[in-house]
Amino acid sequence: MFRLPAGLKSRLCQALDQTGVAGNNNDWRALAAALRLETGYFHGRTSPTECILTLWEVQQSNCNNVNSDGTSTVNPLVDLLNLLRVIGRQDAALMVEKDFGPWI
Known about the structure:
Helices cover about 55% and strands about 0% of the residues. It is built from 5 helices and no strands. It is globular, with a radius of gyration of 14 Å.
């Protein structure tokens, strides 16, 4: 199963669970919308972002994006980076890049 490193996931949750911090209004709701998830389900959770990222991790593990030689055709981290950039969370995208390098 694909999993984000615990420290990175924790930092992303902290950043996205805090609505409006540092001028960012794009929070867990924007991430949920980008993933086409109903935001009402996550409202009131201790960490809505953790729930969203956990569902995303499971989704990545269940994808059949595999070549005939067993290698993946899709890099989930690139997908996550793109989602974070699309919702305007460059700070969160930089967290991912810091852990994995800008080449991902």
